[in-house]
Specification:
The complex is a heterodimer.
Chain A: H1 2-32, H2 39-56, H3 59-84, H4 94-116, E1 132-135, E2 138-141, H5 142-164, H6 166-182, H7 188-208, H8 220-235, H9 240-260, H10 265-279, H11 308-322, H12 324-327, H13 330-355, H14 364-381, H15 385-407, H16 412-432, H17 434-437, E3 443-444, H18 455-477, H19 480-490, H20 492-497, H21 502-528, E4 530-531, H22 538-551, H23 558-576, H24 580-594, H25 598-609, H26 618-622, H27 626-629
Antiparallel strand pairs in A: 1-2, 3-4
Helix pairs in contact in A: 1-5, 1-6, 1-7, 1-8, 1-9, 2-3, 2-4, 2-7, 2-8, 3-7, 4-24, 5-6, 8-9, 8-10, 8-16, 9-10, 10-16, 13-18, 13-21, 13-22, 13-23, 14-15, 14-16, 14-21, 15-16, 15-21, 18-21, 19-21, 22-23, 22-25, 23-24
Chain B: E1 3-12, E2 15-25, E3 30-34, H1 41-48, E4 54-61, E5 64-65, H2 71-76, E6 79-82, H3 94-101, H4 114-120, H5 122-125, H6 137-149, E7 155-159, H7 167-182, E8 186-191, H8 194-200, E9 203-208, E10 211-217, H9 218-223, H10 225-231
Parallel strand pairs in B: 3-8, 3-9, 6-7, 7-8
Antiparallel strand pairs in B: 1-2, 1-4, 4-5, 9-10
Helix pairs in contact in B: 3-6
The chains are: A mainly alpha, B alpha/beta.
The structure holds adenosine-5'-triphosphate (ATP) and magnesium ion.
Chain lengths: 639, 234
């Protein structure tokens, strides 16, 4: 009992920082509709800058002043990002903004190592709060008590800010209807920037407050961002109170879960999130989105199956790829196989994202399930590779059947967040269930059968499987099922009206997508000869998203190009520079700003702009501004 | 002239909606923009406010061209807008809705305050702390107008202020608009039929399929029932 109480206190202390970061994310989302992936990066920067300042300036003023100044500096950086980057892409679909902020996250990860080094740093203790007091024979740091008090204090301050100042009232109004706010004479630009600055300030403060408790590391951004996503989704995006309640809930689950269920402590939080979202799809304190903005489907050119010339072209490219082993070395071949595996992975995600309008943040789950499925087949059944390559996708399928059933009940950002939660559940099972999965040590010795064990053989096998799978996915796009799926994407209400059961169709798409991702994962297991929990991790999910978005969300098969481009670039950069993430992040940011339609969308746009269309109004008019319908004020006067 | 609009053309995506729309509003005038469902009344207002991205033409307000200004800048110059769907902030109280609309006073004119608006719409005075979402349609319409007045405009575009209101409320609304006129405000009102416009307007334009078909006084319009029958709902 005493132990429980002490754990609960420590949970409350952890909740403080989590609440700060989550409320910042929530406030930003409420007004700008941007899910700021870089929020974790700002949290980390807050900790690093605070470390530097507090180490240099001693004493209470140095310490507390250092935390405050650090947060202000980072807030200024956040405002800068909003002004130079996000302002350019507010009109783009939600996912592009996510992609841009993800690019920034990558850059910050490398920059932090350049500036502060890769080692963990230990900051000073808080002056006046270095001691501990004893409760039930256990020591509780007094700093924890400070944090426990801080959470509600900040909640109160934010409440005053939002209810007692003109700025706060404007922000609340903009959270509800930002275009109307502009029609009442408010300059949204500065409102957005100031909201962003406040949100980032809170994130940075959350990070800075951590330095007396934990070491400062260059990977603290990713761990916090997942927890923060969970918190805002449970609490309801846009709700500060919700962020507070959910932060306490999640922190307590973490703290007490360790006692109750040490084996599945990581799972508990995500299970709670899944349950909350199914029962209350917009979180505990969230409100239904008025007009959910579709994440895809603002296609400016109707999709068509390939012409026979295009088919021959593609066949030629595949044939050329098949010639690669004749002149490429082993390393190049294994790189080639890896790229192919990710082509399939990205194509599977592309199918549900662009055809189905379902953006998954956790597609690695099915990739990893496929990899583990194949590994289990080898390890426990002693099955040959052929069988393992069937069992892998079956695992992906099974996972998609279960999580898809829950996920298709939601849409938009909430859908994405729930897929992330499921991926993290599966990741934590793989990580913690050591007896079966080997935990962190993974499963080794997953080698291909002899006939495919040479680099050439495996490359050909992969090429064949990937080419056939991608072709199958394309056939599905133009099948009746594909048309039904596109109908649910483009107009949910109308699809309902003409008798399409939205949930079943989307569930089926989810399952198809998960199965192909599982196949890619199974191939990946044999390529690497081993399986680790990382195959289920967020970075893989994000890679998939980046590939799809880079390829072009409005295209039929852009993901193929996006995957080749991104994977090749990532592998090449890794061999060329220590700062591959910095370069990659910068490239992503530039691409998003330069061409929100992705590489393939960009090429298509150029290709179809050339011949002036006979019916005058042609392509420029056809590229209808979907944003018009949303009533977004935009200065673009027709000539 | 307070507001001059010339050769306005607007598009929603590929669809051409307004064709060379032109009209003018004098100082202190109340002008009706009449037209059936889908005639283009709201689109005209939205275009003037800079809310339709594909547009061409000329909009002059108090002698200055405002065609390419962002919406908030147009509002700050004194052109207020009350959209047809009212767009109340349902999670904000009446007072807070007013606060969002508040802008600097106009030189030479008394600034609008919540108290002055409560005099105009006494119903609102009894529900200062009520959430916008918990109000009736008529009350929301009053709130929406009051909120725009808080910006101290010198001209207001009112998009179908009588739509969906009970006859008694419509009368009250007409009274309020006449009171606004007495304050020296210029007003453009969009309406589907003559009944409401007759009560308050000096002049009228009729728009149909995105083109202005008639321009004249209300009396002239009354004198030509065939025009009314051709272009307006009865
Ligand atoms: N967002 C939009 N996208 C495409 N077309 C639109 C859009 N809004 C309006 N339209 C079309 O523009 C035309 C003019 O519409 P508008 O709303 O201006 O009419 P209105 O005169 O205000 O009608 P009402 O009396 O019904 O409000 C209509 O044909 C309508 O279908
Ligand atoms: Mg209208």
């Amino acid at each position: 009992m005493e132990l429980l109480f002490v754990q609960a206190l420590s949970g409350l202390a952890s909740a403080a920082s989590l609440f700060l970061v989550a409320s910042g994310l929530s406030i930003i989302f409420g007004v700008t509709r941007i899910v700021n992936f870089a929020h974790g990066a700002f949290y980390m920067l807050g900790a690093y800058v605070a470390y530097t300042l507090t180490s240099r300036f001693a004493g209470p003023l140095g310490f507390w002043g250092g935390l405050l100044v650090a947060s202000l500096i980072v807030a200024a950086l956040g405002a800068l990002m909003e002004m130079v980057l996000l302002r350019r892409i507010y009109q783009a679909p939600e996912l592009f903004q996510l992609l841009a902020t993800f690019g920034v996250t990558l850059m910050v990860q490398d920059l932090v190592v350049v500036i502060w080094g890769a080692d963990d740093l230990l900051g000073p203790r808080a002056p006046g709060f270095t001691g501990a007091f004893s409760l039930f024979g256990r020591n509780i740091p007094t700093y924890d008590l400070l944090l426990i008090a801080l959470g509600p204090a900040v909640l109160g301050l934010l409440w005053l800010l939002f209810h007692r100042t003109r700025w706060g009232v404007l922000v609340r109004a903009a959270t509800q209807d930002r275009d109307m706010v502009a029609c009442l004479g408010v300059n949204q630009k500065w409102l957005f920037t100031s909201v962003f600055a406040l949100g980032v300030f809170l994130a940075a403060l959350g990070g800075a407050l951590q330095i007396p408790r934990t070491t400062v590391t260059h990977y603290m951004d990713l761990s916090i961002i997942v927890e923060v996503f969970v918190v805002v989704v449970i609490g309801g995006l846009g709700s500060v109170t919700g962020a507070f309640v959910a932060a306490v809930l999640v922190s307590e689950l973490n703290a007490l879960g360790i006692l109750a269920l040490p084996k599945i402590s990581l799972v508990a939080v995500f299970l709670v999130m899944a349950v909350v979202l199914v029962v209350r799809p917009f979180g505990l304190f969230g409100k239904a989105e008025r007009a959910p903005r579709s994440s895809a489907g603002t296609s400016f050119r109707p999709w068509k199956p390939m012409t026979s010339i295009e088919r021959i072209g593609v066949a030629l490219i595949v044939a050329l790829a098949a010639l690669l082993p004749l002149f490429a070395g082993n390393y190049a071949l294994s790189v080639g196989s890896e790229i192919l595996v990710f082509v399939l992975f990205a194509a599977s995600l592309h199918f549900m994202m662009t055809v189905g309008g379902l953006a998954s943040f956790g597609h690695a789950a099915y990739f990893g399930l496929g990899a583990y499925g194949a590994a289990f087949a080898i390890k426990f059944l002693g099955a040959p590779m052929g069988v393992a390559l069937l069992i892998g996708p079956l695992f992906g399928l099974a996972g998609a059947v279960i999580s898809g059933w829950f996920c298709v009940r939601l849409s938009g950002v909430y859908f994405a967040m729930l897929t992330l939660a499921f991926a993290q559940i599966i990741w934590s099972v793989a990580f913690q269930w050591v007896e079966v999965t080997g935990g962190d040590n993974g499963i080794l010795g997953i080698w291909p059968s002899r006939w495919a064990s040479s680099p050439e053989g495996f490359f050909w096998l992969t090429l064949a499987i990937v080419a056939v799978s991608v072709a199958l996915l394309r056939v599905l796009v133009f099948s009746p099922f594909g048309f039904g799926l596109r109908a649910t994407r483009d107009n949910t209400l109308r699809a309902d009206a003409i008798g399409i059961d939205r949930k079943s169709v989307q569930w089926a798409a989810f399952i198809v997508s998960g199965t192909f991702a599982g196949l890619a994962g199974a191939l990946f297991a044999f390529l690497k000869g081993s399986v680790f929990p990382e195959t289920l991790g967020i970075p893989i999910s994000v890679d998939g998203l980046v590939m799809v978005l880079l390829g072009g969300i409005e295209t039929v098969s852009g993901a193929v190009v996006g995957a080749i481009f991104y994977k090749a670039l990532a592998i090449w950069l890794m061999s060329q520079t220590d700062l591959s993430k910095l370069v990659l992040g910068a490239i992503i940011v530039l691409l998003v700003v330069a061409s929100p339609k992705g590489i393939v969308g960009f090429i298509e746009q150029i290709r179809h702009r050339r011949p002036p269309s006979p019916n005058g109004a042609g392509s420029s008019a056809a590229r209808a501004d979907a944003s018009d319908a949303l009533g977004i004020a935009k200065m673009k006067v027709a000539e | 002239m307070k507001l001059e609009v010339a050769e306005l053309n607007s598009f929603y995506g590929p669809a051409h909606i307004l064709f060379d729309v032109g009209f003018a509003v004098g100082d202190g005038e109340v002008v009706a923009m009449l037209g059936r469902n889908g005639a283009g009344k709201s689109t005209t207002f939205r275009t003037i406010m800079g809310l339709v991205s594909r547009r061409a033409g000329l909009v002059k307000f108090e002698g200055d061209e405002i065609t390419r200004l962002p919406s908030y800048e147009i509002v700050r110059r004194g052109l207020g807008y009350v959209p047809e769907d009212r767009r109340i902030f349902s999670e904000l109280t009446v007072e807070e809705n007013f606060e969002v609309g508040r802008q600097k006073p106009r030189p030479g004119a008394a600034a609008w305050t919540p108290d002055r608006i409560y005099k105009l719409f006494p119903n609102l005075g009894e529900m200062r702390r009520r959430l916008g979402g918990d109000m009736s349609g008529g009350e929301q319409q009053m709130l929406s107008i009051g909120r725009t007045l808080m910006g101290n405009p010198s001209l207001v575009l009112l998009d179908e202020p009588s739509e969906g209101l009970a006859p008694k409320i419509v009368e009250q609304m007409a009274g309020a608009i006449l009171a606004m006129k007495r304050e020296g405000l210029s007003i453009v009102i969009s309406e589907q039929n003559l009944h409401f416009a007759k009560l308050i307007c000096d002049r009228a334009y009729i728009i149909e399929k995105g083109r202005i078909r008639f321009s004249g006084t209300i009396d002239e319009l009354e004198a030509h029932p065939e025009i009314r029958d051709a272009y307006l709902a009865v």
